[in-house]
Structures are given as C-alpha cells and as structure tokens.
Amino acid sequence: MLSTTPDLRQLRYFVAVAEEKHFGRAAARLSMTQPPLSQAIRALEETLGVALFARTRRTVELTPVAVDLLPEVRRLLAAADGLRPLAQSLARGEAGVLSLAFVSTADYGLLPLLLRDFGTRYPRVRLQLAEATSDVQVDELVAGRIDAGLVIAPLPPRHAAQLSYLPIAREPLVIAMPTEVSVRAGGPDADGWCDTPVSLADLADAPLVVFPRRLAPGFYDIIMDCYGAAGLTPRIGQEAIQMQTIVSLVSAGMGVALVPQSLRNLRRTGVVYRPLREAVPAIETGLVWRTAQVSPVLAGFIDIVRAHAATAGPPG
C-alpha cells in the first residue's frame, strides 16, 4: 500500500539528488547503488503526487515544484536532526519550561537571587512566572497548573500528603510606618531603613494594614501573635493582598504594617522601616512542589534552591 507521508530517508535522498543533479553521484554520496535510489525518488513523487525531476539521458533538472520544495525539506531535516540533542537536553533539564509562582514578599529578596542563578545555569529554560498568595499557589499546584511555588509557611494541612516543601530562608518581621509616625516614635524624618527599634506599644493607636486571613492564615496569625505577646489588640485599618499595595497604603498614612525584613528593599516615599523592640518570630519562605511530579527542569531548580537554603544566614 502506498504511503501518504514521505519518510525522512526519502527526503534525504531527494536533497542529495537535487544538490548533485545526477543520480549516480547522489548514489555514491549516499553510499548506495543507483537503482534503489531511483526507485525511492519515484516512490516519493508518487506519494507527493508531483514530479520532482525532469530526467534526460544526460541531465537531471529540478521541476519548479522541487525548487520551491527544497528549502522546506532542508528545514524539516534540520529539525529532525535536532530532535535527539533536544531530547537529551530536556532529559538533563537544560531545556523546557518551568512554571513558577511566588508570594510578593519573595520579589524583594529571594526571588531575584534564585532566578539569576537559574538563568545562568539553564539559559535555555523558559520561565513562566506568576505572583500569587500561598493558598492560591497550593490550589494551582494540586490542579497541575504550575510546577512549583515560593510560599510563606506553614502550608495548609489538607494537601500535605501531595506536596513536598523545602524551607529556604527565615527573616524577622519589621514595621513599616509613615515617616511622620516614625518621627513621633523617636525616629528620623528620612524615608527608608532606620536601625532604631520601635515598640509596638508606641504604635498601639495606629491602624494595622494587613493581609486578609482567608488568603494567608499563617502569615496573618503570626502578626496577630506579635500584638498578642505585647498585650495589644490591633485595630485593622485596611486589608490588601499584595505587599506593594500594603506599603503604598502605609505611605498614604492609612496605618502601619508588619512585613518581612527583606521588604525594606521596596522603597516608597513617606515610608520608614524599623526593627521591633519586642522579640518577633521569623517568617519562613520555602519552595513547594508536587511530590509525584518532578521534571528534570524542576529538579534543576530545586538543586539551586537547596544551595541557597544551605547558605542562608540566620534571621535578623
């Protein structure tokens, strides 16, 4: 039965005859005899339903169709030749796609470091990045829509059996406050980072800008515990789901916010970051992924994350 699709062998034969314009020389180039080469070209012409060569006793010329077809066939053969090295690169995690989500806090400390190292080691891997809260990331992971996520611990227990978690870094909470509030609490009148600690008690009357608990229960509870340990009950002023928005609300005088220390890299006019005088818990950021589905690309990213986790300093 006549095949309806040419095979790669026939296409290579076509290129050889087209370039040599002589069946005998093409056969010698292909290390074969001329009769099977002629048969293969006739079979290719029958499969395609067009004549490729105008033959005489002394010459072989390409038909107009063959002239236009030749560059396309060369591209197909080049792509086919690239399949093996591509497959090997994919198997080694040197090519492919990595879909990574991250909490907004990671964008100001951890994420740029990881992406820089990963891009240096695996320049052919295409990254798909998305910012999302920890709870959204877990749902996306379980649904198979992302490969991994940078989240704030702890993870919701309902999916613990399906997911693996690698802690990366721990950092203390600091307080972001409007510049005028910082001045009243004994700080400088300049924006940015101030080393002078401040007590939560000095800010008891300031509204608190915070993540909604339904979206980040672990983070929310840590902040509430800080106030509780100081014998205070915070007055919730505004809620926002992105750190950039929280800091912007602080700069607008809407309140103060407890944020991870790395967020001081997010500079806003009218905002001062200061350490707390009270002992505060550390916020832990880690990598989470589906235990049963670790692609070579993801394995490479996990290795880089492990290296960062091993060298991460103590909080503070």
From TrEMBL:
Coiled coil feature spans: none
Domain of life assignment: Bacteria
Keyword Transcription: yes
Classification via SUPFAM superfamilies: Periplasmic binding protein-like II, Winged helix' DNA-binding domain
Positions of the HTH lysR-type domain: 6-63
InterPro entries: LysR_HTH_N, LysR_subst-bd, WH-like_DNA-bd_sf, WH_DNA-bd_sf
Keyword set, alphabetical order: DNA-binding, Transcription, Transcription regulation
Family: Belongs to the LysR transcriptional regulatory family.
Name this polypeptide is given: LysR family transcriptional regulator
Organism name: Paraburkholderia kururiensis
Top-level taxonomy: Bacteria, Pseudomonadati, Pseudomonadota, Betaproteobacteria, Burkholderiales
